[in-house]
């Protein structure tokens, strides 16, 4: 079974404190990953590493920068967080290998992403666990813009022929107006009113951006909270299941 798992940046970092890992949360997530028998590709978001610097330099997935200091600050912060994630996994015997998207990916002027994935497929086939992260990406006409972990999930899942996709967020799923978890989402229109906008320090579009991205997937995706990570990796479908158009 091949699984693409995204660990939200807000899950593994203290989102209000610049460049601060939430050690307990990262340890719990790494324990869950270490207990899995699946072929895993791990993607993590930016949390207080990427988003803090991206907001400072005015960079989002659509608005880039030519400021090389900004590029180095944002990418450098994401590499530090990636190092912490890889170290936590390594400590638990997971054969984790860092993969930095800025070194390989690019965006066209229309925003479309070109993400080479042969290296990820080969790492998986060789029984490594590739660990990618939200990053910056070279963006024609914009300099460098943010590449969100959700975009990586959407690009990677078909490339590795994922059987399951999981997005571990700080909330237990998409919540309706009464605070209850929505079981299943088939189209953005169904949930647009409850998703609202993104939060101020999330330059990738928050939950709304996440759901839009997951609806584009061929395979169903689960959005769930940290408490459900063990269950998801054991085969359950906790939280909200996002099923793109054309799927039952
Ligand atoms: O947290 C964003 O990744 P995300 C990465 O998955 C940066 O949206 C550089 C802000």
Can you give a write-up of this model?
The strands form 2 sheets. This protein has an 8-stranded mixed beta sheet with strand order 3-6-2-1-9-11-12-10, with helices on both faces. A 4-stranded mixed beta sheet has the order 5-4-7-8. The model has no long low-confidence stretch (mean pLDDT 92). It is built from 9 helices and 12 strands. β4 and β5 form a beta hairpin. 37% of the residues lie in helices and 19% in strands. The protein has one domain: 3-Layer(aba) Sandwich (Carbamate kinase). It is an alpha/beta fold and 248 residues long. Bound molecules: Isopentenyl phosphate. Isopentenyl phosphate (IP8) binds next to α3, α4, β7 and α6.
Features:
248 residues; alpha/beta; Carbamate kinase; 8-stranded mixed sheet; globular; binds Isopentenyl phosphate; transferase; Fosfomycin_R_FomA-type
Q: What low-confidence regions span 5 or more consecutive residues with pLDDT below 50? A: none
Total helices: the number is 9
Q: Main sheet? A: 8 strands, mixed
Strand content: 15-25%
Q: What is this entry, summarized?
A:
This protein has 248 residues and is an alpha/beta fold. It has helices at residues 9-12, 23-34, 47-56, 68-91, 118-125, 149-159, 188-195, 206-215, 229-233; strands at residues 2-7, 39-44, 96-98, 106-107, 113-114, 129-133, 135-139, 143-147, 164-168, 184-185, 221-224, 240-242.
Q: How are the elements arranged and paired?
A:
Elements: E1 2-7, H1 9-12, H2 23-34, E2 39-44, H3 47-56, H4 68-91, E3 96-98, E4 106-107, E5 113-114, H5 118-125, E6 129-133, E7 135-139, E8 143-147, H6 149-159, E9 164-168, E10 184-185, H7 188-195, H8 206-215, E11 221-224, H9 229-233, E12 240-242
Parallel strand pairs: 1-2, 1-9, 2-6, 3-6, 4-7, 9-11, 10-12
Antiparallel strand pairs: 4-5, 7-8, 11-12
Helix pairs in contact: 3-4, 6-8
Isopentenyl phosphate (IP8) binds next to helix 3, helix 4, strand 7 and helix 6.
Keywords: ATP-binding, Isoprene biosynthesis, Kinase, Nucleotide-binding, Transferase
Function: Catalyzes the phosphorylation of isopentenyl phosphate (IP) to isopentenyl diphosphate (IPP). Functions in an alternate mevalonate (MVA) pathway leading to IPP, a key precursor for the biosynthesis of isoprenoid compounds such as archaeal membrane lipids.
Protein name: Isopentenyl phosphate kinase
């Amino acid at each position: 079974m091949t699984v693409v798992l995204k660990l939200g940046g807000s899950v593994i970092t203290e989102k209000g404190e610049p460049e601060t890992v939430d050690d307990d949360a990262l340890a719990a997530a790494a324990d869950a990953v270490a207990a899995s028998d699946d072929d895993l590709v791990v993607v993590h978001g930016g949390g207080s590493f990427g988003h803090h610097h991206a907001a400072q330099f005015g960079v989002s997935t659509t608005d880039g920068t030519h400021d090389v200091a900004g590029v180095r600050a944002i990418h450098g912060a994401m590499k530090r967080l990636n190092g912490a994630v890889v170290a936590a996994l390594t400590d638990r015997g997971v054969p984790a290998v860092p993969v930095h998207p800025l070194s390989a990916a690019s965006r066209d002027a229309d925003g479309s992403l070109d993400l080479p994935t042969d290296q990820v497929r080969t790492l998986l086939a060789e029984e490594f666990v590739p660990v990618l992260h939200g990053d910056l990406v070279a963006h024609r006409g914009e300099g460098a813009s943010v590449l969100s972990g959700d975009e990586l999930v959407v690009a990677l899942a078909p490339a590795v022929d994922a059987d399951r996709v999981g997005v571990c967020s700080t909330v237990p799923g998409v919540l309706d107006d009464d605070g209850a978890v929505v079981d299943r989402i088939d189209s953005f229109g169904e949930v647009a009113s409850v998703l609202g906008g993104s939060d101020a320090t999330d330059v990738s579009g928050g939950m709304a951006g996440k759901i839009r991205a997951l609806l584009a997937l061929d395979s169903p995706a689960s959005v769930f909270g940290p408490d459900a990570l063990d269950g998801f990796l054991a085969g359950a479908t906790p939280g909200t299941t996002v099923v793109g158009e054309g799927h039952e």
